[in-house]
Specification:
By secondary structure, this protein is mostly helical. It contains 4 helices and no strands. Helix content is 85%, strand content 0%. Helix 1 crosses helix 4 and helix 2 runs antiparallel to helix 4. It is rod-shaped, with a radius of gyration of 16 Å. The two termini are 14 Å apart. 10% of the residues are buried.
């Protein structure tokens, strides 16, 4: 049902795959920025990188579900 609604809203599998790849880049960028800007050290930077990095599998999963829906 959610996949159908996303598809009807114009979201395609390519969009989800692109979001996943961008998320990986943002994960590294947020980690690198946090290491340089914040005084909390690498612990906080690692948390930022992991938090943003967890989005990628979700977007890849949505991409696969949308690709399957697009076949039907």
């Amino acid at each position: 049902m959610i996949i159908k609604k996303l598809h009807e809203a114009g979201v395609r599998s390519d969009h989800a795959y692109t979001a996943a790849v961008v998320s990986i880049g943002l994960s590294f960028l947020s980690w690198a920025t946090s290491v340089k800007v914040e005084t909390s050290g690498t612990d906080r930077a690692d948390r930022w990188g992991i938090f943003v990095g967890e989005w990628a599998p979700t977007f890849f999963g949505l991409g696969l579900a949308l690709a399957q829906y697009e076949k039907d």
